Amino acid sequence: MPKAKGKSRRHKYSYNLNRKRLYRSARRRAAPRIACSHIRHAWDPHKSVAQNLAEMGLAEDPNKAVPIPKKLLGMEVESDGQQPGKKIVRKPYVVNEMELEASLPEKKSNTLSRDLIDYVKYMIQNHGENYKEMARDEKNYYQDTPKQIKRKINVYKNFYPEEYKNFIASLKPEKMEVQ
């Protein structure tokens, strides 16, 4: 089967084509990506970014919204006492919803694997606080050193403090029955 003619031929670079202008115009046409759902729902695609943010009561440029006082920069400047005109906020619910969402407590999403929890419980149940003995245990598949085992137990203590206390409390009656 014959080859396609255009594929094997070397492509020549076109010096007359302005690639910067092509790239800029394509970038300008694309709608902005908005991560926050509150802003996304209140966004008006027919207005500019600055107009949309001003209507919501948000700052387009944080440097202009919260300027550094001249006194901190080392320059003394007298002011007239006039404040720049305040902008009218037409969509205050956006900022209110964002503040409400930010004030909610953050969920703890990090957890330990079930295997690690079982490993730590097994080690504590059989060896107590003797980390050297834990390191020599046959269930220590990954050949953890005593310090590594201690660190894993401390991580379990920090992640599940209540569960750890209950586990230790349940071990004490067993030890009393043995003696």
Plain-language structure description:
The chain contains eleven helices and no strands. The protein has 179 residues and is mainly α. The chain has two domains: 19-68 and 86-103, no CATH class; 114-171. The longest helix is centred in the C-terminal third of the chain and has 18 residues, at 161-178. The chain is flat, with a radius of gyration of 32 Å. The N and C termini lie far apart (88 Å). The model has no long low-confidence stretch (mean pLDDT 82). This is Nucleolar protein 16. Its main location: nucleus. Keywords: Nucleus. Pfam families: Nop16. It is found in: Nucleus, Nucleolus.
* Overall geometric form: flat
Query: How many structural domains can be distinguished in the coordinates?
Result: 2
Number of strands: 0
Distance between the termini: 88 Å
**Biggest sheet: strands, sense, closure?**
none
Counting H and I runs of at least 4 residues, what is the number of helices?
11
Helix content: 55-70%
Computed structural class? mainly alpha
Q: SSE order, as H and E? A: HHHHHHHHHHH
Low-confidence stretches: none
Subcellular location: Nucleus, Nucleolus
Pfam family, one: Nop16
Keywords: Nucleus
Family: Belongs to the NOP16 family.
Please give the structural blueprint.
Elements: H1 5-8, H2 19-29, H3 37-42, H4 49-56, H5 62-65, H6 70-73, H7 92-103, H8 114-127, H9 131-135, H10 146-159, H11 161-178
Which key terms come to mind for this protein?
11 helices, single chain, 56% helix, 179 residues, mainly alpha, 0% strand
